[in-house]
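notes to self, project folder thing:

trying the whole complex as one job this time. last attempt i did each chain seperately and stitching them together was a nightmare. two parts in total, labels are on each line so i dont mix them up again. if this works i'll redo the older ones the same way
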Amino acid sequence: MKGSLIILSFFATGLLLGVFRFIPISWASAEVSFYVLCALMFSVGFSIGHQPDTIRQFRKIHSKVLFLPLTTIVGTFAGVFVVSFIFKHSTTELLAVGSGFGYYSLSSILITQYKGIELGTIALLSNIMREILTLLFAPILVRWFGKLSPIAAGGATTMDTTFPIIVRTSGKEFSIVSIYHGFIMDFTVPFLITLFCSI
Amino acid sequence: MYIVLLFMLTGIISGYLLRKKKLGFMNGLILTLIWALLFLLGLEVGMNETVVRKFASLGLEAAIIAIAATLGSVIGAKLLWGSIKSHKQ
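result (full assembly):
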């Protein structure tokens, strides 16, 4: 929990500095984030390679884990379906938003093109929030919903942005599950969004 | 996306090659980079005027969808995890 609060305070500080323009705009370019992400991925990879035992541990993981992307998709749709009736947008439109699975850049661009800027902005916000929820609550999710839950929550982001936090909370032996999950989810995002926007 | 994975692969190989060396600072470095990334994400969101302006009106709907989607998927993961654990015993 303390770890989540520290992470949240870094996010909040960035948010406030951004809103009030206390920092030169060039700092916030996606490019800078990308370099930091690359450095992070190198470090995470390094710590995995540094302890070869972790890769061997994956063999102990059950083959049923291969179904994780499927339970993520079905679970997400069930959750969105239940709450969809309280909003003015149609259920299929909101299922399209849910089909971003945290991949906010791609989902917001696609949905803006298919359905306009309003639903596109909802997709952007909602999927950023999913990513943030995963980053903040991964330690709590592990305790309440088991070691696979931070991966399910991370959706399509589990092989990049939420990967380091998943490895920290679920354990290094889940790194390959996390990459596998992110890889499959990444591919399904454009297909499912196109499907729900065309129904 | 694939460049990011390439960085991790390079990291795994270098980590493996240097596995005999003790490098205790690695965990601290990872945590620092996570903080930097979250700070930058906040900065990016805060500087996006469209998102900030519409945040109040669309934010609530987006938040409820995000929470419902996350909750649904972790319940799915819990069921799968439960079936794996019961299978092992």
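what i see at first glance: Chain B has two domains: 1-33, 48-89.
need to look closer tmrw
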